[in-house]
Specification:
51% helix, six-stranded mixed sheet, alpha/beta, Immunoglobulin-like, 22 strands, 14% strand, Heat Shock Protein 90, elongated, Rhopdopsin 7-helix transmembrane proteins, single chain
Amino acid sequence: MKKRRRTGLLVFTCLALFSLRGLAQPMEHGMLVLSSADEQYQDGLYPLQDYLFVFVDKVEGRTIQEVAAPAFQPLFSQEERWRAGAFAGDLGPEIHYIWGRLTILSQLDEDEEWLINFDAGMVDLFMPIDSNRFAHLKSGESRPLGEKPFKGIYGTLSCMPLRLPAQDTLTVFFRLKRIGAVGKGMRSAFGNALFKPHAYFAVDRHIRFFDALMIGIMLAVAIYHLIIFLYQRQYVSLFFSLFVLAFAMIIMEYRGYASEILFPSVHLRSPIVVVPVTWSLVYLFHYGFSRLYLQLPKLLPVWDKIWAALVLVDIISGAMLVKMVFAAGEFSNVAPGPFFKLVSFRVLANLPLLLTILIAAAAAWFKGNKGAGIYLAAMLTYVLQEFANNVNAWFGFLNLPSYVYGYVGQTLMVLLFAMGIARQLKTLQEEKSAAEQAQLAERAENTRIRELDAFKSRFYTNITHQFRTPLTIILGMADQIQAHPSAWLNKGPEMIRRNGRRLLQLVDQILTLSRLESGHLPAHLVQDDVIRYIKYIVESFHSSAEQKNIQLKFTSGLEELVIDYDPDKLMDILSNLISNAIKFTPRGGEVKVEVGSRKSESGSRKAEALTISVADNGPGISKEALPHIFERFYQATGSPSPPSATSPLRGDRGGLEGAGTGIGLALTRELVHFLKGEIAVESEPGKGTVFSITLPITHNATDGYEYERSGIKESVSTYIPTPEAAGQAGGKATGHEQYTVLLVEDNRDVVEYISTVLSSRFHIVAEYDGQQGLARALILIPDIIISDIMMPAMDGLEMSRQLKADRRTSHIPIILLTAKADIASRIEGLQTGADAYLAKPFAPEELQAQIDNLIELRARLQERYRDLSFLFQPQHTLPDEDIHSEDHFMRELHGLIRDNLSDPDFSIGQLCEQIGISRASLYKKFKALSNQSIADFIRRVRLHKARQLLETTQLNITQVAIDVGFKNLSTFSRNFTEEFGVNPSRIKKEHKF
């Protein structure tokens, strides 16, 4: 792509052609005459060889005034060698300048602008202004573009404007320097002509348009891919962007735009210096782009190394060429032999490089790189345009300007490369997306496996949990019947049967779910009045609702509705929902069961769907838990809020534990879907929950259904909580022993069983959920608390956590009962501050042993706190194992008393007010900690302080008695003697100072 060279060739070809068509005949004195009648004038081109007068100057620094002087004119001559169109010999290295003189006679009617061109490194044109002044224009290939009168493609030529006055003669002088070639020094001939502007710039307007279009496309492509690199960090885009920028730079340099735009005031010896460097950058960036695009290191490692070596050879040879030009100082001084050998080597080296590129692209294509096909097409486009351009330049097959081939071929090459990169980036993005999808799928599978493992863990934990509770009752009652048959022969077997049915029901639930999932659960449809059947089911729960003073209401907009239904499955669905509503509705609340039908949109009287809703005004379910309530074994962590608001296990059947089996609602939903119905839930925390069921109405069954109300009640009995044991509900006492045990357990059979075990030794108070247990503990301040973990309203862990955080109850030993026997559950329970952890089923002896151990620890603590010596000892001097959790409370209490020792009227009421605990609560807590009253403790603190003062100070007995708050000396002496067994006088004598 040697555009400038082709342009020069075009100019000289034009000169040769015009010389053959007949030149204007020189006048006698060598004057060029311009006439509008001349053929040359019509063509706009006058060769100047016949009109030039030349002076070879060996003196440097001669001025134009000296050269233009009349005395100097005889030195100008007109020789044959100036007429030659080619170089005509070496003038010698001592020549500095060549001066020329041209006289033009204009016979034109108007002034006209013409252009004069001289092919030289430096050209100075002098046009007379007056007798001693001249206008000075500069041009030449060696001059910076900023000094030239014209820019762009023709700025690289020595072209200058010349204004010819009408009907007048103009004599101009010019000075030439550096008109030689490599190793030739100053030459004796040079291109020169007078052009009309329209002839000189005829194609410039079109060339500039297409130049701007092509360069604009390349810059846009380069910037776009640079942005892609900055965004995606794909280095193929970076190298391609740099390649296109370097290629655009080559075009700009050939056209002269690089010098015009980037370096208008600096001469870079273009193209001898800039072009080799830029071409080396083109090859380098093209290799970097191609290496990544064609995946050469992976697919073609050998060709990758060959390609890299050829690019390195080009870079080294280009650097040598530049060094050679700079070392010579002037282009004309460059040694011709090495220069042309190096240039020839670079040209020849491009052939194996081009061949390597084509072979590597084809090989990559055959090896499966589909993008290599586009790459190969782009390279072939470039090769074909170069071939067509050169062939057409010599033979003229097509009547098209040479630059058209370059525009089309080079632009297509860049665009094809861009298309290939876009395709490759899309493929990479798809592969990345596929990899991410695979990774997500793998993560999802891992998550599914973990969830499955967690589900299995929850399944076995919950199943064993649900089995352990009734097994505790069954085994315990069996032991009680065996030990005390007369006392338990009537009640014990019934409890065993009831809990046995619960175990069987749990097994049935699991089997039903399994059959539903496997599709092996049969439907037993009957056709009967479904309203009456549902009403009987609701009535079976009245006794359970009355136990909690809950109003259970049944309403129906239909007196009768005979449809197909499955009695067993409908009973399971309603029993689950109603029992849960009763379980989670507070005392005095309300549960409503409404039955209706939904009319068809056509307005037909025939109902198309049965609607059933079960609503309660319980604590509700939180928005976070609501989406999970139908998940099997879903459990939220314990929290002070009601479990129905945090744990969706409201659907648990049978009331086995407060949080249930974890499969009740899951089974309910599956059964509804099995009957081709829908179930929905609406809940608002603090206001209640509504479950809505829609079942399709059909009339296909032929069998009726015979049932008795007693049979329905028997069937739903396992859903109904155990009736409250007499003497236990509401915290009534069952014994009259010294220690009071608060039993918090939602399963009344368990309450009754534990009560029978402990009632002979302890005063038992029972509550049936965590909230009630917490409230009762704060009022009662019991000696021991036994609590289940999974309960409604508040679980045992949260209750234990709150009790241990409250200074009124922090001292109370807590035993946690649970069916969860794993180590993690034990640790979680003990971390709440619980003192013991007992797994179900447990032996009565194990429970009593735990209680005895806690009582023994209580006795040791009471003994410790009765000895007041630790209160008068700095805490930091105590060993860590001696610091009990209640030591801080005792020290705070002692500090308040010590601060008021001198006040004889300091009362227990004042102490309670300062410590922030009620009198009754403080009395019970302190009694439990030290087995003494607050009044005795205050008195003993006064006496121990008095003894300390008597032993360590010079105060007399009266002063000491007053300082510790005794008004009467005799009372002080009597109390002192009772406490220490010695009177204060003796103590004073033994510690005289």
